[in-house]
Amino acid sequence: MREFNFPKAITLRLNLDRDDKARGFPSAAAEDIPIIEKNRSEILGAMITIEDRIIEAMSKYLFKESQEKRNFFINEIVGTSDFSFAFKRKAFTRMLEQFDLLDFGSITELKSNLNKLMLWRNAFAHGQVIHDHHDGYVLKYYSGGHQELVLNDDFFEKAEETFRSCLYVCNGIIQSREAET
According to the model, what pLDDT value does residue 18 have? Predict the structure, then answer.
């Protein structure tokens, strides 16, 4: 399989008005940038997985009795590009509430986590990674205003934990429905 290897550029930012000492350009940039790019790709791919699991959970719960109805629901309704991730997220969490599939606290946490994943997906899809001489790698993006997200181990660990939490909930709904059959 052919691997793309497009040239990459990174913007450097130095704020001279800050009191903390500038760290300068990282010596490990040659290793850091490919990791950030891989993590960006992982986050975008993970969102496709979450979206697919949401669709499967909804279809299995709502159309347990009919594979034909489930396939129609997936292929002609929620699986189309006409429905955004935000719509699918809202429909899924509303289904969980309506049919008491999770307790209130779990649904609230899931909504918060799905919102974070959507924000991060959009930030990585449309934002720009820069290197700030004080803060390290930063993802600049627009979400209701200009935003910045420091890209470090803490962030990527939080992102992975959030993704796994959402995936666990979706898989739990799917498996509980399968166990009823």
Answer: 62
